[in-house]
Design a protein that fits this description.
This protein is α/β, with parallel strands linked by helices. It is built from nine helices and five strands. The protein has two domains: 126 residues, Response regulator (Rossmann fold, 3-Layer(aba) Sandwich); 68 residues, Orthogonal Bundle (Arc Repressor Mutant, subunit A). Strands 2-1-3-4-5 form a five-stranded parallel β-sheet, sandwiched between helices.
C-alpha cells in the first residue's frame, strides 16, 4: 500500500500555514510544519512522499540553501517556493535548480492547489521510476559475470550458435546460461528481457526531460 503524501512546510507565516493546512485537508494528505530549514532536515526521511513548500527568507539556512542541501543528498523531493516579494534573481535561481514554481504572497488558493497537485504527481512519477530502476538493478545484479556476457550478446540479437562461437563455449552452456538469465530476471523471452532493460533507460530520459 502506498504511503499518504505529506506537505512539508518550512515557513513561520501563520496565514500561509492555515491556507496550506486547508488544502491538505481537502486533498486528504498529511501536513507537517517547520519554522526553520534545519528542523525540517533533521526530521525528513527521503522515503516520505509528498512535496516541500518553503519561504526563501528563513532564520538560519535560507530556502535556496535548503534546496541545494537536498540536491546534494540526491533527494528528488519537489519544491514549491511561497515567498513575500520574491526577488527575480533568486526566483530564477530556484527554478533553474528544479523548483516546481515560485508563488508570491498573498497566496492564491487555486494557484497553490494546482502547484501542490503538480508537485505530488511529479513525486509519484519519480518514485515509481526509482522503484522500477531498483527492481531492474536487483534482477540484473543476480547474474554472474558469464551470464552477463551471454546477456550482452542476446540483446544484440545474436543466436545461440553465434554466442557459443563468440564466447568459445558449447551450445549447451549457452542454453543453460540463457535459462538462468530468464529465471533470474523473471522474463520469458528475449523481447521481454529487452523491454525490461529499455523501460528503465526510457524512464531515465523522461525523467531528465
Amino acid at each position: 500500500m502506498s504511503r499518504t503524501p505529506t506537505l512539508f512546510v518550512v515557513d513561520p507565516d501563520e496565514s500561509a500555514r492555515r491556507l496550506i493546512q486547508s488544502i491538505a485537508e481537502e486533498m486528504k494528505v498529511a501536513c507537517q510544519f517547520f519554522a526553520k530549514a534545519e528542523d525540517f532536515l533533521a526530521a525528513y526521511r527521503d522515503d516520505c512522499p509528498g512535496c516541500l513548500l518553503t519561504e526563501f527568507r528563513l532564520l538560519g539556512m535560507n530556502g535556496i540553501e535548503l534546496q541545494e542541501t537536498l540536491a546534494a543528498d540526491c533527494s528528488s523531493l519537489p519544491i514549491i517556493y511561497i515567498a513575500a516579494s520574491p526577488e527575480i534573481r533568486i526566483s530564477v535561481q530556484a527554478m533553474q535548480n528544479g523548483a516546481i514554481t515560485v508563488l508570491e504572497k498573498p497566496l492564491s488558493y487555486q494557484e497553490l492547489w494546482d502547484s501542490i497537485r503538480r508537485a505530488i504527481t511529479r513525486d509519484e512519477q519519480t518514485r515509481r521510476i526509482d522503484a522500477r530502476h531498483t527492481l531492474v538493478r536487483r534482477r540484473l545484479g543476480l547474474l554472474t559475470e558469464k551470464e552477463r556476457q551471454v546477456l550482452d550478446l542476446m540483446i544484440q540479437g545474436k543466436a545461440n550458435k553465434q554466442i557459443a562461437s563468440r564466447l568459445d563455449v558449447s551450445l549447451r552452456t549457452v542454453e543453460a546460461r540463457r535459462h538462468q538469465i530468464f529465471k533470474k530476471t523473471k522474463t520469458q523471452s528475449v523481447a521481454e528481457l529487452v523491454r525490461l532493460i529499455l523501460s528503465s533507460e526510457t524512464d531515465d530520459m523522461m525523467d531528465e526531460s
